Amino acid sequence: MSSRIAVIIINYGTADLAIAAVDSVLARQHGGYPVEVHLLDNASPGDDAAVLSEAHEARNWGNRVRLWLETENHGFGRGNNLVLRALAGRSSPPDYVFLLNPDAGLQNEAIAILADRLDAAPQAAAAGAAIALPSGRPVTAAFRFPSAQSEFAQAVNLGPVSRFFARWIVPLPPDLPEGPVDWVSGAAVMMRLSVLEQLQGFDPDFFLYYEEVELMFRMRKSGHDILHVPAAKVLHAEGAATGVGRSRRKPRPAYWYDSWRLYHLKTQGRVRTIISGLAWMGGAALNVPLAALRGQERHAPERFFGDFTRLVMRPLLLGPRP
Predict the structure, then answer these.
(1) What's the Enzyme Commission number for this chain (predicted)?
(2) How many CA atoms lie within 13 A of 248 on its CB side?
(3) Quick one: pLDDT band at residue 2, thresholds 50, 70, 90?
């Protein structure tokens, strides 16, 4: 009997993109795997709920797509947890869940390819697709876990430094061959529902960002593999849903820094998190004169030093912010 798959798409303010994401799933055959879609609107501003409801009827999605129209913005992880708990509570739950960003869409039979890989690798808890921008340019979809070394090297943004710390750099090459990695992009990832149950899903402390990294850290810690499967292909309009990925220099929202701090605390402990924070600040400080000498833009987000001090270092050193 074919493994059953539930697709989960979390929407916030991107109704048209979310509709296209659903259509990209429904347009595929999925290699015979039974597939259902869950589209959750996270209390979007404006008329997203009405637009999604109208699309459900106009496109005759029927029972292939279940709409979840929430009155509270739960964030990414908690929104997924709502659906995951409902799926796990069934008398016959699906085998896998496929998380797809609302600003992403299937480029091939990615769901079937990922399910095939998980069927063949019972020790694997998750499998992620290769990702390309709408232009067709491939982008990184597999990563190493962050560390103090990676934070420093990324912040300095200088070739010799990056090469010296190459074994710690978080993004792996976009053309990375198939195989196990630390973690994969949450924009298009299939996970084994039984493992999600065991780990109690996403950590509800996260609102947005780093929640999938922390979840896959726990998967790896519990002895499971995370697979990068480049044969599965997805297009992703990176940052369309949040705006954060569109410009490196754009100021990060407070919840991004909160998530950075939470991830490092939960996976490294307070002392190593402080070291990682100091490494990022030190690297960013070195980047200021280096960028000026090279006539380049600073690498850190705007307002980085003030925001990072207030939202990360102060809570780490003095306790949570009010």
Answers:
(1) 2.4.-.-
(2) 8
(3) confident
